[in-house]
Amino acid sequence: MSSAPREIGTLIVVVLKANHLPNKRHIGKQDPYCLVVVNGEKKRTKAIKRGGQHPEWDEELRFTLLEDDDDLLTRTVSGTPPPLPPKDNQGWKRIRGGNTMKIACYADDPREPDLIGDAEVDLTEVLTKGETDGSFILP
């Protein structure tokens, strides 16, 4: 008996802007874009033509969150649905792909995009409180 993973909710990521990005272009301004990865699903913003070191995207990216395979197996075997996740940090281990999101910023290039910087973002606060605002340093 197999069952598809249950949808838990939607994660909405708003990529607003960046400040003081390193310049990857020797001549002219770079065309930066962001790539966001949640549970292996990749979505990207548009490239800001001549966005340089201070681009503004103001784009919304949506990701469907699914329950973890371990919980799916438990629910399928026992025949009863698992309890609702508690509102503490431990309850969100049930999300497929874990509690992290990866974000990377690239300088668009027809041959091969140049990585400007990337970071891994902990989603625990978002998953427990429902939303969060924050800035992230892309080393």
From TrEMBL:
It holds the Pfam family C2. PANTHER family: 16 KDA PHLOEM PROTEIN 2, C2 DOMAIN-CONTAINING. GO terms for molecular function: metal ion binding. This is C2 domain-containing protein. Gene3D superfamilies: C2 domain. Keywords: Calcium, Metal-binding. Residues 1-136 form the C2 domain.
